[in-house]
Write a structure and sequence with these properties.
The complex is a heterodimer. Chain A has helices spanning 3-11, 26-55, 65-68, 71-96, 100-130, 139-172, 176-208. Chain A is mainly α. The chains are: A mainly alpha, B mainly alpha.
Chain lengths: 210, 129
């Protein structure tokens, strides 16, 4: 090795390339793995979105979206889910500062807002079914219930997960394992809000738009 | 040890390892503000009669994509930082698949619609006799 090269190498000791920095911290690796799962979930939703967009006009003489959807209810659902995404972020901050009280508060508000979203959605589905707009009525309604219902099931799963995580914080405290799971939960919850952005734009607002 | 540091293209100075400041309250609040703004705009666009009708759905799609970007950056913290490179690459691949699924489905089904335009009698055989 020539002296010049050796000197340059010494000059650059402070600059460590990513390939030589050693294994990434567990937090990064876990977030990456969970991110891949979330992307696969997004790909699944994109198939449901494509099915909805293709079947939007296939109402088979049944009710159309413009007749069925209630914009006030959609606006409230959107507000609840966005607010719960924000409080979930606040909960992440509380977890970082290891504050039990703030974490429980963040979790509780997130849960209540998520449950309010789910309640409104279930009421909307029940109203539609009472009007005879069941999934069996038309291809449009099948695609609608598949897409929005799948998102609702994800929210339900998220709420159950949140309860389990609060119990784990209570029993195990802020161990590394629990913190990583809480991080995955918040990634999951924020992703559900991203999918809801697509749903309220493509499903609800486009149906009422001129 | 020094030899390991030499497998790099000339002029390709890698950035010093920096530890990103963890996202704080401000980041989430800015994200919330932008998301509320974009959501309100979406609802206004869908209900106003001031805009050209056929352009409304394109506007809604643009607003939705912008809001998804806001959520990704401010809530999911997908950044350009060195420890986020893999996340960004995975996101790019995911977006490729999403675009293929959406554009491919819409394109093929539109094409089928245009090429299989049947006469009303053939479309609804059960309505004859």
């Amino acid at each position: 090795m020539s002296v010049a090269v050796a000197e340059r190498a010494i000059d650059e000791v402070a600059f460590v390339p990513a390939s030589e920095a050693g294994p990434a911290p567990k937090r990064i690796v876990v977030a990456y793995g969970f991110w891949i799962f979330l992307l696969s979930d997004i790909v699944m939703f994109s198939a449901l979105f494509a099915a909805y967009a293709v079947l939007k006009r296939a109402t088979a003489g049944g009710p159309t979206g413009a007749q069925l959807f209630n914009q006030v209810s959609v606006a409230l659902e959107t507000a609840f889910l966005l607010a719960s995404s924000y409080t979930c972020g606040l909960m992440s901050l509380a977890i970082r500062s290891r504050s039990h009280v703030a974490t429980y508060w963040g979790g509780a508000v997130t849960f209540v807002l998520g449950a309010a979203f789910l309640g409104l959605e279930i009421r909307e589905f029940a109203n539609m079914i009472a009007q005879g707009a069941t999934p069996q009525r038309s291809a449009f309604l099948s695609a609608f219930f598949a897409l929005v219902g799948c998102h609702g099931l994800h929210v339900t799963g998220g709420l159950i997960w949140l309860i389990v995580m609060m119990a784990q914080v209570a029993v195990m405290g802020f161990r590394t394992r629990v913190q990583l799971r809480l991080m995955c939960f918040s990634l999951f919850w924020h992703t559900l809000d991203i999918i809801w952005v697509g749903i309220f734009s493509v499903v609800y607002l486009m149906a009422v738009a001129p | 040890m020094t030899e390991l540091r030499l497998d790099r293209a000339p002029g390709d100075a890698s950035a010093p390892v920096e530890f990103e400041a963890p996202p704080g309250l401000l980041i989430y609040t800015i994200g919330l503000g932008l998301a509320v703004l974009l959501t309100a705009t979406s609802f206004w666009v869908a209900n106003t009669s001031l805009l050209w009708g056929p352009g409304v759905s394109i506007g809604l799609i643009v607003l939705a994509i912008a809001q998804m970007g806001v959520h990704l950056v401010f809530f999911l913290h997908i950044t350009t930082g060195p420890d986020n490179t893999n996340n960004v690459l995975a996101l790019a691949f995911g977006l490729l698949i999403v675009l293929l699924v959406l554009a491919g489905s819409l394109w093929i089904m539109k094409d089928l619609d245009a090429n299989m335009m049947l006469s009303p009698e053939l479309m609804h055989p059960h309505m004859q006799n």
